[in-house]
Design brief:
423 residues, alpha+beta, PmbA/TldD fold, six-stranded antiparallel sheet, six-stranded mixed sheet, 22 strands, globular
Length: 423
């Protein structure tokens, strides 16, 4: 007899990785995997993964009697073709040649993931996630690191070449004409709409994940629910019905749905990001936030998406209100140190603000600070909400998954700004 508190995930995953660089070196990798992940939520949260030749083989391993038709997944092969990708994006390669970087690399990724979630007494649920992405990496003269610009989509494998070329050109011009500048104290930083929300994902979203809280690694506890934890300008949501990025993802990877997507409302913590296992351990009421990279990994509480809801200001007001600070665009990776209550984040395209106007280009910078001092110094939130460009991803406990973020333009006070990590 199958345990009541259990869930089984049957998966078929197809993907392509293709890259080409300035020396015409190409790499191509195609993968196709099927498997089953069986998880027991009580008492030890154990799991077992088995690789299959085909999803239909899962039926013999299931404890629940599921009809073969319920295990049917797509048989269509991944539609990505490297030669077509090169032809379709020829203008991007021409633009890279004209910009004359020291070296460049373009990476294409395409992935199709189909999952069936099976729980006792519940009709099997199916999730489907398709993704196509392009990442352009280039290194300029006298620079150690690569500049990265990307775009992703669940709609099509065709990308906005005009937009990508414009972004690449803008960043290259910023870096080539940047003016060295030293900030001697904390300054306001204005985060551009869209991708800027990845900072909230890192410094606040992960703080709300139930496994970190259960292990006492996060500064948040269940006792914070119902109390103010950040600036009252901040409202965070974990799902947006208008966003098509996860349009075919109806439930999490335990077959659960979040009852309410609002995590933080006007600075007040309303709920945590939890799976079923940690929901019981923390004695909280919400779950529906369980994710796994693939059937070979252990599911974790983590974000599908994080959105900063729009405020009341026009974006120009945020800049005009800043006598001295930074405007940040094109965001890179970052890291949070919960034990020190600190974080850092890379900005790939930054500009100095002087007397309420954007002035000198700064190239790449690093912003860092005290997590909750920064979150409580969110001073203004604009009304120009945008989704990210589809390239956000998250690495946790060795698992990498696509995530979605979005926000309007946001002004944060009390950030340290440096040009080098060890400044």
């Amino acid at each position: 007899m199958k345990e009541k508190n259990s869930v089984e995930l049957v998966e078929q995953n197809r993907g392509v990785y293709f890259s080409i660089d300035s020396k015409d070196r190409k790499k191509y990798h195609y993968y196709k995997r099927s498997g089953i992940l069986q998880r027991r939520l009580d008492p030890e949260n154990t799991s077992r993964s088995i690789e299959l030749n085909h999803p239909s083989e899962a039926k013999a391993l299931l404890d629940t009697n599921v009809k073969a038709a319920a295990l049917a997944l797509r048989e269509k092969e991944n539609p990505f073709h490297s030669a077509k990708a090169l032809r379709d994006n020829d203008r991007i390669f021409n633009a890279l040649t004209q910009l004359k970087p020291m070296e460049w690399k373009v990476v294409f990724r395409s992935n199709q993931t189909d999952r069936i979630l099976i729980k006792p007494g519940v009709k099997p649920q199916k999730n489907r996630f398709d993704y196509s992405g392009i990442l352009i990496k280039l290194r300029l003269k006298d620079q150690r690191s690569f500049i990265e610009v990307g775009e992703g989509s669940v709609q099509s494998s065709r990308f906005n070449q005009d937009g990508l070329i414009s972004r690449i050109t803008k960043i290259v011009e910023n870096h080539r004409s940047c003016v060295p500048h030293t900030f001697h104290d904390k300054v306001p930083v204005i985060l551009g709409a869209g991708d800027g929300a990845i900072i909230f994902h890192e410094i606040l979203g992960h703080s709300l994940e139930a496994d970190y809280i259960y292990l006492r690694q996060s500064p948040i506890t269940p006792q914070h629910i119902g109390t103010s934890i950040v600036s009252n300008h901040v409202t965070l949501s974990a799902r947006d019905p208008m966003d098509t990025f996860f349009k075919n993802v109806e439930c999490d990877d335990e077959g659960e749905k979040s009852e309410n997507p609002v995590l933080v409302e006007n600075g007040i913590l309303r709920r945590l990001i939890s799976d079923c296992f940690h929901k019981k351990r923390l004695n909280i009421t919400d779950c529906g936030h369980c994710r796994v990279e693939d059937f070979a990994h252990k599911p974790l509480p983590r974000m599908y998406a994080l959105y900063v809801k729009p405020g009341e200001y026009d974006p120009e007001e945020l800049i005009e209100s800043t006598s001295y600070g930074v405007y940040a665009d094109e965001f890179g990776e970052g890291k949070v140190f919960f034990e020190k209550n600190l974080f850092y984040f890379f900005i790939r395209d930054a500009w100095l603000i002087k007397n309420g106007k954007i002035s000198d280009p700064l190239g790449s910078i690093i912003v860092r600070g005290n997590i909750f001092e920064v979150l409580n110094s969110v001073a203004m939130v604009a009304n120009d909400f945008r989704y990210d460009k589809g390239v956000s991803y998250c690495i946790k406990n060795g698992q990498t998954v696509n995530v979605r973020v979005g926000q309007p333009t946001v002004k944060i006070n009390n950030l340290y700004v440096t040009n080098e990590f060890n400044d």
